[in-house]
């Protein structure tokens, strides 16, 4: 006999860190990418990385009717 499952680790669900401007993790049903309203998609604000979108210029927002 052998314990093949010994030491098997369960990873957390995939998904990177969210930016403050994100409504939900990327790939969430009912959400989509939108241009960051804080930096208009430039990813920069006042010469620094936009804190709202994390410098991506894109935020994830709900697109479902509401
Ligand atoms: Zn931004």
From TrEMBL:
InterPro entries: HSP_DnaJ_Cys-rich_dom_sf. Residues 1-49 are annotated as: Disordered. SUPFAM superfamilies: DnaJ/Hsp40 cysteine-rich domain (SSF57938). This is Chaperone protein DnaJ. The lineage of its organism: Bacteria, Pseudomonadati, Pseudomonadota, Alphaproteobacteria, Acetobacterales.
